[in-house]
Amino acid sequence: MVRVLVTGGAGFIGSHLVDRLLDGGDRVCVYDDFSTGSRTNLRSAAELEVVEGDIRDENRFAATVGDFAPEAVIHLAANASVSQSCEDPLLTHSVNSRGTLVVLESCRRAGVRRLLYASSAAVYGQATKLPIAEEDPKTPESPYAIDKLAGEMYLRFVVDQTPGSAGVAMRFFNVYGPRQHPDSPYSGVISRFAERVAAGRPLRIDGDGHQTRDFVYVGDLVRRIEGYLRDKAFGFEVANLGTGVPTSILDLVRGFAVAAGRTPEVQHGPPRVGDVRHSCADAGRAMASGWRAEVPLAEGLSRVLSWQRAQG
């Protein structure tokens, strides 16, 4: 059993991770402001504590860390919308950069020795080659991506200043799965497509649809996060978390056509500000321990569509 504090634990990725940790017998504290996460994502369990709070609230977060005394902190809380970060960079910086520093500094002062941080493939910007390796150039093109890269640097600083500690900056590629609500500004293209397919509405594509992404199923992602939690290694590490398989948006349309048994209507709009053209992970570092993304895209799309239909 490990005592684990998860920021953003009531959100899409966080709640799946909390489920997995509870199933593994861990004691978990969720710290969430519930601005996008939901209590309905969290099951009732004696091993689960829930604290409502903002990661920017230094006193409240430090008190939570002191009271719960975690052995590890997994920092997922963030403003995750690229477009919103372009419209309101000050808010995004406040949450994603300053909030991350509050989390890391509170953990350092409390003696937490294992820190896992949700970074993003957005730090790479427009890739000059595929697949993208961790050492490739970082040219973030949105305030969101800039703040995520800054968070990695803060994490490295804290680990370097804390002998015997470990920190992993996990660069998530495009995560999808059940509980990713399409009406959220942070939703991914798959959740939005699933909602429209379930309702029989046209699919909107931003741009020409030939842009590619590396879509990783949330269940596969949280397995790897748990692996980093159990790992006994020390020091700082950066790792891409993706499948290594590029998929175009038009490929998604074809995948949903198969899952739904009909071809949806498609409408095109202008490209989104701050979006990269192509993205695909070199996930060799994450796979070195034997981890692999196991859920094929076709199966994952079917699961998301089934979940969306069950929402009514």
Overview of the molecule:
- There is one protein chain.
- By secondary structure, the protein is α/β, with parallel strands linked by helices.
- It has two domains: 3-174 and 214-241, NAD(P)-binding Rossmann-like Domain (Rossmann fold); 177-213 and 245-281 and 290-310, UDP-galactose 4-epimerase, domain 1 (Alpha-Beta Complex).
- Helix content is 39%, strand content 19%.
- The chain contains ten helices and 13 strands.
- The strands form four sheets. It has a seven-stranded parallel beta sheet, sandwiched between helices.
- α5 (143-160) links the parallel β5 and β6.
- The longest helix is centred in the first third of the chain and has 22 residues, at 89-110.
- The protein is globular and about 55 Å long.
- The mean pLDDT is 96.
